[in-house]
Amino acid sequence: MHADIQRVLISQWQINARVQELARQITTDLLRDQPNDPELTIIPIMTGAMIFASDLIRDIPIAMRIGLLTVSSYPGAAMTTQGSTVTTAQLPDLRGRHVLAVDDILDSGGTLRLVTPRLMALGAISVKTCVLLRKDRPQARATHADYVGFDIPDEFVVGYGLDYNNYYRNIPDIAILHPDAIERRKGG
Ligand code: 5GP
Ligand code: MG
Predict the structure, then answer these.
(1) Active-site pick, 59, 107, 154, 163
(2) Looking at residue 56, what is its pLDDT?
């Protein structure tokens, strides 16, 4: 698998440090906004945000519920967005709740623009968004995210939950694939 990586963009050590900072910031903001009985409903956007969310939530020491949304935008071997659709939702009652949607990467912004109004429509009092990565492209910068881990160049990345054709999610770093690996994994 390591032979398939052309370049590590962000190491697992850098990720760990930044995830802790994000968790601290989120916790501070929650305690400021809800000083009496702070509570949060976290919604990781599957499958890419699975690993990021699992690390992030363990550093947020606040009463928390979890719901899941699966959004597909890069199906199969696609390397550019094909438009975002919600494929499954496993959500608790959001009426009167503070929600934090967590995604792996902000690219075209289609996912967050789809998910945020949908969660508000289910009765959430507030919906904030947190992404580990934001690509350096105009659509990404034009889409609001409350918490951003890293700004990265506009390149296709894998690892730490992000896939190519559902492979490479288990790489611990954020990395760029070798063109040979892209060719080889194209067929699944
Ligand atoms: P957006 O909806 O902002 O265009 O893109 C968000 C989703 O597209 C992400 O949650 C992720 O699933 C996918 N995506 C966008 N850029 C990349 C990338 O560079 N690598 C991978 N593996 N997925 C990406
Ligand atoms: Mg995704």
Answers:
(1) 107
(2) 98
